[in-house]
Write a structure and sequence with these properties.
The structure is a single chain. The chain is built from 8 helices and 6 strands; from the N terminus they run ββαβββααααβααα. The chain is an alpha+beta fold. A hairpin with a 2-residue loop joins β3 and β4. The longest helix is centred in the middle third of the chain and has 18 residues.
Length: 202
């Protein structure tokens, strides 16, 4: 069971496209991938995270499956989403509660004006601690138990990436049009898709 990446994202307004989508803070743990794959895997996970963050409704929690991993997203605010990228074996409630916890802490530390006015990444060192601590979901689950008992029951929607995309949108065309992915990452995605082995964990 692995947490690969945690990203705090400011999604753009789908109608005005302003301000643009921005990854405010990110932490990754990709040592289970081969050294040569890591930069492409990290880039693609960021792309996947921003794609699902933009397409998640305010107040919604969902798990989006793509190949061998799941992006658990919580959009607490029109301009704030947290995405926790895991493998398929990772317990969903732990991932969702982690996204919720990070969202609350981030909103306590940074005002809406700071989030809206950001033009580059914002320091949030807690992500580095959480990505290490939550590699052991059973231990983390104990930490979250009290908080979970205080929270009301939350529904988690399960979808594939195709279920999140708008009618007529295809992941392949989003990858091709993306300015956030390097040519190397685009080639990595296409090659992995052909062999049906995107982002295989070593």
């Amino acid at each position: 069971m692995k947490v690969f990446q945690i990203a705090i994202i400011r999604p753009q307004d789908r109608e005005t496209a302003q301000p643009p989508t921005l990854v405010l803070s990110v932490a990754s743990q990709l040592d289970s991938f081969s050294f040569f794959q890591r930069s492409s895997v990290e880039e693609f996970m960021r792309f996947f995270s921003t794609t699902i963050a933009e397409r998640t409704q305010v107040g919604q929690r969902q798990g989006i499956t793509q190949e061998n991993y799941v992006g658990y997203v919580y959009r607490s605010h029109p301009r704030l989403s947290v995405v926790v990228m895991t493998d398929k074996e990772y317990p969903e409630m732990v991932a969702i509660e982690l996204a919720t916890k990070i969202s609350r802490e981030f909103e306590q530390q940074y005002s809406e004006a700071q989030i809206m006015g950001a033009t580059s990444a914002i320091k949030f060192p807690a992500l580095d601690d959480y990505i290490v601590k939550y590699q052991e979901p059973h231990q983390a689950n104990t930490i979250l138990k009290v908080q979970r008992e205080l929270d009301e029951t939350k529904a988690v929607l399960h979808k594939t990436i195709e279920g999140v995309l708008e009618r007529g949108e295809k992941l392949d065309s989003l990858v091709d049009r993306s300015n956030d992915l390097s040519t190397q990452s685009k080639m990595f995605y296409k090659t992995a898709k052909k062999t049906n082995s995107c982002c295989i964990v070593m």
